[in-house]
Model the fold of this input.
Amino acid sequence: MATNAELFERASRSIPGGVNSPVRAFRSVGGTPRFIARAVGPYVWDAEGKRYIDYVGSWGPAILGHAHPDVVRAVQEAAVHGLSFGAPTEAEIELAELLIQRLPSMEQVRLVSSGTEATMTAIRLARGATGRKKIIKFEGCYHGHADSLLVKAGSGLLTFGNPTSAGVPAEFVEHTLVLDYNDLDGVGAAFEEYGEDIACIIVEPVAGNMNLVKPRAGFLEGLRELCTRHGALLIFDEVMTGFRVGPQGVQGLTGIKPDLTTLAKVIGGGMPVGAFGGSADVMRHIAPLGGVYQAGTLSGNPVAVAAGLATMRLIAAPGFYEHLTAQTRKLAEGLQSRARAAGLAFSADAIGGMFGMYFSAHVPASLAEVSAADVNAFKHFFHAMLDRGVHFAPSAFEAGFVSATHDDAVIEETLDAAEAVFKDMKQ
Ligand code: PLP
Done:
């Protein structure tokens, strides 16, 4: 049996950094990534046969726990009938109808294969529909890796951003304005200056890519109001929050209606599915109806759609979100009370099946506040928990995910391990 270290060494010879997505490489916490051999319910097992309670959940999709038998069966049954046709299927209509029915802001939806595709196309659509160039995003929100979105704030308050990735020419991000999350005044000032030319705001309506950061009261409402007033489109990137924080995403919790919504993760149940949708009036700009181009060989893939449909049906069970929310809250509150009892500056927050933990006395409201937390304490906590069989995201800038299979015994086991680690840390 190969060890994790041997596999990492081998992987690093054929795959850059040994991983197919950078955060998996443990660069921000150090050490060796665990190579996963299998997963069931709340658990994953690594290549050495060690079991972990998993709070990564494939970075969000595994809301039913890993390898839910109904989802696995749906995939197997679909696969028997063919893996991909490149032609429309009835199952795609069913998934589209389900999504539209659950999210009233969408009258039409286009299926793609990832969150990146969904957000990249939503931006193109917003520009195509408005005939405007500029977009607003917020520091610390991640919307996938399209060129114009790999950008951080420039030096001035209202200057356009700088690329965060080599290979992205400055010209490609010159129309992306990067503002502080939860700073409505900043958005107001941007509209004062550039209002006529702003095509859209894209926002994680609850941010999960700078740890968990919730919108302040009035922030999302303010974005809605400014977009409406200036003729810009409001894009809720619900790739992470969609069907994760509640049965209708953040838009259901707040009652705010975005013009466009992007989805992925949960709607594919662990298979590659993304989606973007909005009113029929906006969606008519997409090819083949309109001039905004978008396509995909594997879009609406029958096996992926089968997993998504099975997942969407299971999460519609009565009480599903009440249970998920209660379990996640137990975890967050339990972590916070145990850390504070040990005398540590620690906070935790939760919404639906998502949680954040911060080695700071207060729950942060922006990337700057998240960055001020004690990163070394997080690294220590992460590794000590991993040793004890609990798998958190290997970065202090990621939200955590609970599944419906994280029952009381699983949460208690996690909290017992955390209590021991917190006590050690204080010494
Ligand atoms: N948008 C948000 C809010 C995300 O969290 C992510 C991925 O984590 C993406 C977009 C990109 O999705 P994908 O990794 O499926 O391309």
